[in-house]
Amino acid sequence: MISANNISLRFGKKALFEDVNIKFTEGNCYGIIGANGAGKSTFLRILSGQLEPTSGEIVITPGQRLSFLQQDHFKYDEFPVLDTVIMGNQRLYDIMKEKDAIYAKEDFTDEDGIRASELEAEFAEMDGWNAESDAAMLLNGLGIPTDLHYSAMKDLEGNEKVKVLLAQALFGNPDILLLDEPTNHLDLDAIGWLEEFLINFDNTVIVVSHDRYFLNKVCTHTADIDYAKIQLYAGNYDFWYESSQLMLKQMKEANKKKEEKIKELQEFISRFSANASKSKQATSRKKALEKIELDEIKPSSRKYPYIDFRPSREIGNEVLTVEGISKTIDGVKVLDNVSFIVGHDDKIAFVGGNTIAKTTLFQILAGEMEPDEGSYKWGVTTSTSYFPKDNTKIFDGNDLQIADWLTQFSEIKDATYVRGFLGRMLFAGDDGVKRMKVLSGGEKVRVLLSRMMIEASNVLILDEPTDHLDMESITALNNGMIKFPGVLLFASRDHQVVQTTANRIIEFLPDGTFVDKVTTYDEYLESDEMARKRSVYTKSEDDENDN
Fold this sequence. Notes:
Helix 3 runs antiparallel to helix 4 (110-125) and helix 14 crosses helix 15 (441-455). Strand 17 (504-508) and strand 18 form a beta hairpin. The protein has four domains: 1-64 and 175-235, P-loop containing nucleotide triphosphate hydrolases (Rossmann fold, 3-Layer(aba) Sandwich); 77-168, no CATH class; 241-291; 320-397 and 455-546, Rossmann fold. The protein contains 19 helices and 18 strands. The longest helix is centred in the middle third of the chain and has 36 residues, at 237-272. The chain has 547 residues and is an alpha/beta fold. The protein has helices at residues 40-48, 81-86, 90-103, 110-125, 131-141, 158-170, 188-199, 212-218, 237-272, 279-291, 355-365, 392-395, 402-407, 415-424, 441-455, 471-483, 495-501, 521-525, 528-546; strands spanning 2-11, 14-24, 29-34, 55-60, 66-68, 176-180, 204-208, 221-226, 229-234, 320-329, 332-342, 347-351, 373-378, 384-387, 459-463, 487-491, 504-508, 514-517.
């Protein structure tokens, strides 16, 4: 068990938390939610001991081990992958290293022997002999192949490092597990594996995530941060939303009844206060009136942008034909003879762990890269807008104000018209004169979505658009994608976005080939294609283990 007792955190005069009391118990998974800036990640840092609160204390059941997802992706660069995972249980790792050092000594003494036997006993008690195999299972589950387990962390790609650090947090069955955005940079397969792991995890989990499907799948409770307080709800994210809306409705209805009662009492007092025969009743009504208090209803600090993609022209029947496209990058063939035809009603989700293949295809279709072989042809009625996964070229060193930058993409150059699109994306007032180069990750995404709205294209290509967005912005984007009357080609790690938007799934496999199926995402996951893929994956893992 871990509890926060009277926790307050202040930065100058601003209170991020004020007298927070909350208890997290074993066997439950708690989802921490709240608007951007509400303090979700900060609260996890307080729980983990990385940040001292202004007042109050964190209490952990004596003897319990706490583990958290590290955010420094370079901290373990000089260590092997497998060692990095085992460091999730630092005491076990220290025992392993001390044992190795003792056994490597040339002048092995009786004292060394006694110390080694003590370490061996503690090592066995901590199930140390299974440490490497347990770590390997976590890595394989998250999609890190066995041939990388003995590589140095510095040799891994960024998304691979994230998976290793997640495996580190999960390692050794910690009593309390703190996860800050664990699904970031994970593909949908790895997210699915993590969901099952947490569902079957018996201890305490506290997780911050913007992935609604993930929170619904794994959480038994929801802790909502708003106005420096934390309100705990039993149930997952959807249950919190329904409960909070119901509570708000009930408070409004209760206030309405109180207001009607107040009006009735005031009218009686006004009519009869000067009437001697009614004076006692009027006095009684005054006392009753003084006791009525309206419930304070604060509007939520959450802000929802408004995303509405409206094409300026209707799309024709001929949209896109891709024929035999292949592409090799750094000696690796990432696209191998890819061919497909896009229809005018298609909303295609590109899924699978081969993220390079998806990004490369999108760059080719957006005209930013040439294929090595093959060709593609857009229909004459099509107009495209592209949301890149990597937007550094657009923002780094760009000294333009965001309103001036956005005006370049608008047929109507009127400042009020352009500012309207920024206003929809929560850039109100002076925010419109912010410089492009100083924007945060979430602000950059909202600016690019503003551009896509103002371009009014009938084909949208979106490569991981939910990265860096808060829950409210993801919900708004999801709704905008569902309502969009044109063609969508998109990749997203958000299960709910894919499930509710796509009517066709294309999955790129590790060898650059692909599977193309007209279906929803959930139906695809249960399909024969996925069953075959799982059997091939399992067989390859078994072969590696046999070797």
